[in-house]
Amino acid sequence: MILVEDWAEIRRLHRAEQMPIRAIARHLGLSKNTVKRALASDRPPKYARPPKGSVVDAVEVQIRELLRETPTMPATMIAERIGWERGMTILKDRIRELRPAYVPVDPVSRTTYRPGELAQCDLWFPEAQIPLGHGQTGRPPVLVMVSGYSRLIAARMLPSRRTGDLIHGHWRLLSQWQAVPKTPVWDNEAGVGRGRPTSEFAAFAGLLATKIYLCRPRDPEAKGLVERANGYLETSFLPGRHVSGPDDFNTQLDAWLKVANRRVHRTLGARPLDRWEADRAGMLTLPAVDPPTWWRFSTRLGRDHYVRVDTCDYSVDPAAIGHHVTVLTDNDKVIALTTDGEIVARHVRRWARHQTFTDPEHAEAGAMMRHRARRRPTGQIQAVGTGSGPLVEVEQQELGTYDRLFTVIDGGGDKEAG
Question: Quick one: how far is CA 336 from the chain centroid?
Answer without folding.
Answer: 29
